[in-house]
């Protein structure tokens, strides 16, 4: 592997196998203080964009403000505004501490290059996909704010008819925390991740452009987790799918299912249905678990995956976290009485081209 400029090699292996890399003191206290001051000033100057679900802001009505839900008090200062197809205030050369943000951008560019080399994802180091292919922003969570469990990217077929419409998809998620003297016991606000208890046998996230949607749990005879990928374009037809894993020599796909239609199977099913209806081999079927099951009363009844383990990361100033956008479920625990600041973003890579053999709409 080529020498890395700012990341330890141990971080690369952690991300590659589905964990969260945590690098403390990635940025100095003076850099953190300067960026936090910039973010705070721009927020109170009204430059941030309020989370669409928050329901408050300068134009909010009295009724909106009276019913404001503090758990949704989230706002961002974006580098790009997709709805307006223009650069956002983060890239402004006239607002706030421009030099501090430019230095941050330079550091994140070096980080992106390290990750591209270390994880053999050269596509994330390409900048010609479009203006929003590498997202970066300041983020603010108000007192009491949280973010429910989720994953940052989903397979194209799990997004409905618009799934193939974008040129890129999120590949890696990152955050640099900008908080001073944070005490997780008193201040809350941890990033809670759900890592696998057993080590993954292979690299996570994607294979041949096909995104991961689940796992095969380990057994006594096969003690490592195996990532399960979705081939969503069988015969170059959108909606014609099959699940597969890597062969032991990593040279070929081993299909677990016959072809099936994405709708309804990928939208209405739980682990139980995939295990018993889609995967032909019963011994392999009972090992299957979604990364994130489609939400339903049944999945709530069956409970969470016993193969997961919780890892909390305190949002301590200067700490960098990086993880695969597809493979790691996570949530943000509620802050208690303080604002929570970070610089965050996603590195993109090219999405598979839209299938040309037609689509299946049921």
Structure write-up:
The protein is of the alpha+beta class and 362 residues long. The protein contains 9 helices and 20 strands. A 7-stranded antiparallel β-sheet has the order 1-18-8-20-6-3-2, with helices on one face. Mean pLDDT is 86; it is low at 53-64.
Secondary structure blueprint with pairings:
Blueprint: H1 9-16, E1 21-23, H2 29-44, E2 49-50, H3 62-66, E3 74-78, E4 80-81, E5 86-87, H4 98-118, E6 134-141, E7 147-150, E8 168-177, H5 184-187, E9 191-196, E10 206-207, E11 210-216, E12 226-231, E13 240-246, E14 253-255, E15 260-261, H6 262-268, H7 271-278, H8 282-285, E16 288-290, H9 297-302, E17 308-313, E18 320-324, E19 330-332, E20 340-350
Antiparallel strand pairs: 1-18, 2-3, 3-6, 4-5, 6-20, 7-19, 8-18, 8-20, 9-17, 9-19, 10-11, 11-12, 11-16, 12-13, 13-14, 13-15
Summarize this structure as a short list of keywords or feature phrases.
362 residues; globular; alpha+beta; seven-stranded antiparallel β-sheet; 20 strands
Largest sheet: 7 strands, antiparallel
Indicate the radius of gyration in whole angstroms. 21 Å
Number of H- or I-type helical stretches? 9
Secondary structure: helix percent: 10-25%
Helix vs. strand class: alpha+beta
How many β-strand runs? 20
The percentage of residues in β strands lies in 25-35%
Mass-distribution shape: globular
Distance between the termini: 47 Å
């Amino acid at each position: 592997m080529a020498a890395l400029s700012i990341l330890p090699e141990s971080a690369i292996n952690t991300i590659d196998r589905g964990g969260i890399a945590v690098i403390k003191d990635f940025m100095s206290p003076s850099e953190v203080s300067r960026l936090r001051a910039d973010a705070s000033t721009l927020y109170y100057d009204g430059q941030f964009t309020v989370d669409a679900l928050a329901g408050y802001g300068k134009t909010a009505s009295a009724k909106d403000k009276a019913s404001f839900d503090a758990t949704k008090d989230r706002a961002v200062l974006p580098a790009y505004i997709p709805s307006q197809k223009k650069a956002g205030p983060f890239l402004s050369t006239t607002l706030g501490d421009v030099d501090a943000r430019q230095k941050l951008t330079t550091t994140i560019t070096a980080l992106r290059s390290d990750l591209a080399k270390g994880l053999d994802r050269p596509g994330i180091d390409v900048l010609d996909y479009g203006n929003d292919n590498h997202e970066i922003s300041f983020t603010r969570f108000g007192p009491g704010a949280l973010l429910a469990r989720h994953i940052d990217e989903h397979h194209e077929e799990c997004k409905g008819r618009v799934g193939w419409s974008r040129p890129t998809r999120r590949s890696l998620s990152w955050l640099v925390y900008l908080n001073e003297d944070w005490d997780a016991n008193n201040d809350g606000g941890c990033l809670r991740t759900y890592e696998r208890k057993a080590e993954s046998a292979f690299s996570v996230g994607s294979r041949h452009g096909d995104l991961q949607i689940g796992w095969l749990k380990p057994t006594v005879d096969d003690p490592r987790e195996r990532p399960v990928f979705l081939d969503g374009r069988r015969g170059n037809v959108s909606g014609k799918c099959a699940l597969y894993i890597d062969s032991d020599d990593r040279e070929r796909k081993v299909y677990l299912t016959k072809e099936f239609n994405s709708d309804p199977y990928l939208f209405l099913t739980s682990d139980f249905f995939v295990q018993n209806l889609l995967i032909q081999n019963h011994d392999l079927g009972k090992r299957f678990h979604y990364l994130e099951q489609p939400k339903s009363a049944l999945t709530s009844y069956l409970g969470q995956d016993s193969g997961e383990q919780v890892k909390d990361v305190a949002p301590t100033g200067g700490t960098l976290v990086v993880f695969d956008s597809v493979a790691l479920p996570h949530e943000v625990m509620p802050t208690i009485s303080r604002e929570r600041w970070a610089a965050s973003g996603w590195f993109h890579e090219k999405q598979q081209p839209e299938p040309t053999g037609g689509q299946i709409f049921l």
